[in-house]
Amino acid sequence: MIVLLYNIALQYTVLTTAIQHLVIIIEMMDIMESLNISVCVDANDKKNFEQFCENVGMNVSTAINMFIKAVLREQKLPFEIHLKSFSDTIYEKLQEAELEIDKNPKRYSKEDVIDSINKIIG
Fold first, then answer.
1. Considering its fold, how many domains does the chain have in total?
2. 68-92, pLDDT tens digit by residue?
3. pTM
């Protein structure tokens, strides 16, 4: 019986301490200043983003705050941003052309190509 009372008292102490910590955290959250951020976005994107947030059980403010916290924690954007160089674009287009050539077995002679160009440019 004494052991049972001791366990109950111990659990009560642990629970009381946890609740006190939770109250402190909530009070700290109330103290933190909140500011508004105004962002211009495409109307369709806004509607779709709001729908996405609703589907996953959060609002837009929560999602944006999660994004900001992730950026600050990781010290980087959570996606890669880069500018394609002209040579990268040309290389991709050449690869697409090679695939198309491989798919189409028909070959054109030099004369056929020149005739086709002359028809186009008149």
1. 2
2. 889 988 999 888 877 777 788 888 8
3. 0.44
